[in-house]
Design goal:
By secondary structure, this protein is of the alpha+beta class. The protein folds into 2 domains: 33-202, Gyrase A, domain 2; 219-342, Beta Barrel (Elongation Factor Tu (Ef-tu), domain 3). The protein is 18% helix and 33% strand. It has 7 helices and 19 strands. A 6-stranded mixed sheet has the order 8-9-10-7-1-11, sandwiched between helices. Strands 18-15-16-17-12-19 form a 6-stranded antiparallel sheet. Strands 3-4-5-2-6 form a 5-stranded antiparallel sheet. A hairpin with a 2-residue loop joins strand 8 and strand 9 (163-171). The chain is globular and about 55 Å long.
Length: 352
């Protein structure tokens, strides 16, 4: 079993505030088509005969049976079942590739490497040699000039000379794709894309991820949630039929004993500031939430936050289900800005 004290990130690592893109950048992604270079992600490659088997025993999803045409969400848990990282996983050439929050990449690679032992697997942080580009909106024609075929479903992966193209869940009813390829090749081809699509801030992708209902584990929320608290069981990030992995017993117990009393919801908050602006309560991953009926203790926590097109911030907020039944939920304190909850793009199971 993994040593619980093996760190994933330094406690002194900075927590970044959400950036605010220009209104025209949101409009480009929502009304036409846009691309964005996603520097908020890092990439780990696991190579070797046992790479998939090794990761299968470490992550929450089935990696051993992942084929070349698929991609899967997965989590990496502590022995206590708390998420140390979230990731998208697929096969790229002879490696299994992991897309992780950039601020966690080096530490996740280091921690996973500690447990390889006799397995024929080697993990490398390849962030500096690859580029990650996100596409949203009407983008199929430009992409068809980069790839001979386009993914025909969510989490379908196609490979070509330009790298990997993966369809990811729609957001705000717009199609989205990830292109991950060799950095030099990607940078060479980006200027041609600018003739067809708008190049926008990577913060637009963060906002789209929130509206897709896909939580991302970052430095601000390390070891705060079991996978179900961030809906990973609903969006395909956990396989309950596979073998053991760190924290598996706790994750399974939460699922089958009806102990899931917290979930992640989509919300908007106005009257809040980006972290570092002292005039108003700040908004970023890890900020606690409070209910109007119980101001003495938090009822939830921001998982991810992004600037919204019309002002304020949109959030994925992990919260007690009971707190959604009445009263109001507030940012930072019971008298902080109120959250306005919105429907997720998927249904949550009824908890009993």
């Amino acid at each position: 079993m993994n040593e619980p004290n093996a760190p994933v990130s330094s406690p002194s690592a900075p927590i970044h505030a959400p950036l605010r893109p220009a209104a025209a950048e949101f409009e480009a992604a929502l009304s036409r088509g846009a691309f964005m270079t996603l520097d908020q992600f890092g990439v780990i490659d696991a190579a070797g005969d046992d790479a998939a088997t090794f990761l299968h025993g470490q992550l929450t999803n089935d990696i051993e049976h992942l084929d070349a045409a698929g991609a899967r969400l997965a989590g990496y848990c502590s022995p206590k079942g708390r998420l140390l990282a979230s990731m998208l996983v697929w096969r790229a050439a002879d490696a299994v590739r992991l897309l992780v929050s950039k601020e966690l990449t080096a530490a996740v690679q280091k921690r996973l490497s500690m447990f390889v032992l006799r397995a024929k697997a080697k993990l490398a942080d390849v962030t500096d040699s690859v580029a990650v580009v996100g596409f949203a909106g009407d983008v199929r024609a430009p992409l068809s000039r980069l790839f001979d075929a386009l993914p025909d479903g969510v989490h379908v992966h196609v490979a070509g000379p330009a790298g990997s193209l993966i369809r990811v869940p729609d957001a705000a009813s717009r199609a989205r794709y990830l292109w991950v390829g060799p950095k030099a090749l990607v940078q060479e081809r980006l200027p041609a894309l600018e003739g067809e699509l708008s190049r926008v801030s990577p913060a637009v992708w963060d906002w789209l991820d929130i509206h897709a209902g896909e939580p991302r584990i970052t430095q601000g929320v390390l070891e705060q949630f079991v996978p179900q608290m961030v809906n990973f069981d609903v969006i395909g990030g956990v396989n309950f039929r596979k073998g053991c992995y760190p924290g598996q017993e706790i994750v399974a117990r939460s699922q089958y004993r009806g102990t899931i009393k917290r979930r992640t919801a989509l919300a908007h908050v106005a009257g809040a500031a980006a972290s570092g602006e002292a005039a108003e309560p700040s908004v970023h991953a890890g900020v606690e939430l409070f209910h109007s009926d119980d101001p003495s203790q938090p009822c939830g926590m921001i998982v991810n936050a992004a600037a919204a097109p019309n002002g304020g911030f949109d959030l994925l907020a992990e919260i007690k289900l009971a707190a959604l039944e009445g009263g109001s939920v507030h940012l930072g304190a019971a008298d902080g800005p109120a959250l306005a909850f919105q429907p997720l793009p998927y249904a949550l199971p009824s908890e009993v």
